[in-house]
Amino acid sequence: MSNTVIKNVGILLKPRRVTEFSTIIPNLTEWLIRRKKNVFFLNQEEARVTKKFTNIPKQVSFIEAEELHDLDLIITLGGDGTLIGVSRSCTKKSPPIFGVNMGRLGFITEFSKVDYFEELAKTIMGNYEITKLQLYRVNVTKKGKNIFKANFLNDVVVNKNNISRMFTLTVECESELIFNVSGDGLIISSPIGSTAYSLAAGGPITHPNVNALVLTPICPHSLNHRPLVIPDDKSIDIKFPVKEDYLSLTLDGQEAVEIDKGCIVTISKVKNNFAKFIKNPDRTYFHTLKQKLTHGQRENR
């Protein structure tokens, strides 16, 4: 239960799908304004919002992505990707996020577009609980110089970015060698990301309350390389042979950077920095596993 007074509310939309919200956006905006809430959209959405939703209340305002941390609540309309993108943007302080699933899977997007208003009404009155998910950071250095830094929530993938062929990675934990693995790449996932790409590559399902990172080789060229779970208070270094010209580093399937020979990729926990999601009282983690992934269910015979 939270006693936080909610006054400033942001609405963030799934990119390229604004036209699907022709009814939802005006209704939601008007509903919030009637309850004396200040409503904000991103500046980058201003042209589309004002053009597509001619009946939207004129009291709405527009802010930069860097100002999202000043809001009391963020409502996302989209899927897991929209929610993850917002979480990664709030690098200073994460306001609670009320995720409305407009997509297909909606594994961490807690609320359905059909019946979310009841829980939203409770939320803006301060009657809500929060689920905190740890954020992690990727630092890429070359010859001691930092060349890239970003946060992730779900996973980081290292693989080839052009010709699909095997390559070798060296993975260390706190400067101690874990393994050298040859294959198509490596996935480093958080517990909440363990049900995404890592799971498809044979990694374990890891409960979000477990403070860990999962290292899952992609198609390893050896039967000896299996997924590994390690404590997330340890830093991980990933290195690759100088004969490899370029590799691709992808964060949460949303941001990609090219890394070349001599780069070291370091992954660590961002201390005291969490993504905060409004919890759906009707959903539990194991319920979601069964509903979204049919985990543990048997076919009738």
UniProtKB/TrEMBL annotation:
Its cofactor is a divalent metal cation. Keywords: ATP-binding, Cytoplasm, Kinase, NAD, NADP, Nucleotide-binding, Transferase. GO terms for molecular function: ATP binding; metal ion binding; NAD binding; NAD+ kinase activity. It comes from the Bacteria. NAD(+) binds at D80, G81, N154, D155, R165, D184, I192, Q254. The active site is at D80. Belongs to the NAD kinase family. This is NAD kinase. It comes from Halobacteriovorax marinus. The gene is nadK.
